[in-house]
Write a structure and sequence with these properties.
There is one protein chain. By secondary structure, the protein is mostly helical. The chain has one domain. It contains eight helices and no strands.
Length: 137
Amino acid sequence: MRNTGPWPTLTTIHEAGHFIDLEGIGAKGNFASVSGEPDMRTVLEAAEKTEAVKGLRGKLAASTSDVWRQHLHYLLWPEEIWARACSQFIAQRSGFVSLKRELAKARDAEAFRQWTAEDFRPVDAAIAAMFQKLGWM
């Protein structure tokens, strides 16, 4: 992680989201976002229904650039959708103005990279339900 990136705090939380995925949810050492852990599957199903993820899939379908297609495939990996969702969940609920600014910057940098607050509501609810089941909230 570079502290000189365009949104360093959001990136740090995103990377912590990968750790939570790998070690905190479901079987340790397996990405819950890939292994089909039921509560994580609910989060990812909610994300799949959002305009943001649909928008990324539409961009992928329309793209003719191999480099751009690789980037879009990467953004659509389940573990990447989860990490972006986890970072947005924390950013929106944190109350830190600087973190919310970074979230807005990431959203503005690339269409559909992050969700609008309205589009994210079902994902937020699914993450909250999962975190409550885990005893984290």
